[in-house]
Amino acid sequence: MAAPAPADPDVVFQAVGVDLVRDDRLLLDRVSLTVRAGEQWALLGPNGAGKSTLLQVMATHAYPTRGHVDLLGHRLGSVDVFSLRPWIGHVSPHHRVDPQRTVREVVLTGVTGTIQLIQRRATSAAELCRAAELTELMGLRGRNDAPWRVLSQGERGRTLIARALMAQPRLLLLDEPAGGLDVAGREQLVASMDDLRQRLPGLATVLVTHHLEELPATTTHALLLRGGQTVAAGTVGDVLTTELASACFGHPLAVSKNAGRWAAVSAARPVARHEI
């Protein structure tokens, strides 16, 4: 299948003045965003900010109520979304997997975008080779034959990313990929994401998280959402500041960066011992 030919091949996703109303609730309010090839976006905000809703729009699983969205040069609402979805890798924590399937088998389902391998469909040598390359890229060497049921949470997340990459997407969407991971699992995931940036420099990614500590050092841009509205959007150094992060999360925060990685701690006045 040939990729759709966008009007501007550098723009992978563009939302202009997007509102999304669901059950009489305004979940997105005049959100505008442009994601270009090779950019690594972080989508941050508190619970209920609209992050996952915007990601659903990017994945073509939700449509704006007002405003317009272009994906790979095609206007959402006037294009067959099934022709676009192979070019959008979407990693969701709600993805269902047969617990008996091995890492290799789960990754190979990314070729067809199905939950199970399709019976009577022969897997090509090229597909097996690509699956092996992607599992190694995601730090899963030696785990190809391990069944899903014995994998750690971090290994499962990295397996699903490898699966999403099988179809060679132009846009990779990651919905809280570090959720539920311990520190070691989080760091393995972040290292894999940094490796991915080096190996696939033209791939655009959008990563949803609540925590600055979960961002890879290769993050290039950030969007802060609060109450469905944009607090700030742009290059990561301009957006991830103490002032803007505090406004986004509704709490005084101190944002710092060390060795290319971000962190945020409370900047609220500590309670003196005699006040306790």
What's the topology here?
Layout: E1 11-22, E2 25-36, E3 40-44, H1 51-58, E4 66-71, E5 74-75, H2 81-84, E6 88-91, H3 103-108, H4 125-137, H5 153-165, E7 171-175, H6 183-199, E8 204-209, E9 221-226, E10 229-235, H7 236-239, H8 242-249, E11 253-258, E12 261-266
Helix pairs in contact: 4-5, 5-6
Written as H for each helix and E for each strand, in order along the chain, the element string is EEEHEEHEHHHEHEEEHHEE
CATH superfamily: P-loop containing nucleotide triphosphate hydrolases
Please provide the count of β strands.
Answer: 12
Give the overall average pLDDT.
90
Class of secondary structure makeup: alpha/beta
Which residues form runs of ≥5 with pLDDT under 50?
A: 1-6
Lateral arrangement of strands in the main beta sheet = 6-7-8-3-9-10
Might you state the CATH topology name?
Rossmann fold
Number of helices: 8
The CATH class? Alpha Beta
Shape-level CATH architecture: 3-Layer(aba) Sandwich
Query: Please, how many domains?
Result: 1
- Helical proportion, percent range: 25-40%
Largest sheet: 6 strands, mixed
Q: What share of the residues does DSSP label as strand, in percent?
A: 25-35%
Descriptors for this entry?
single chain; 4-stranded antiparallel sheet; 8 helices; 26% helix; globular; Rossmann fold; 12 strands; alpha/beta; disordered N terminus; 28% strand; 276 residues; 6-stranded mixed sheet
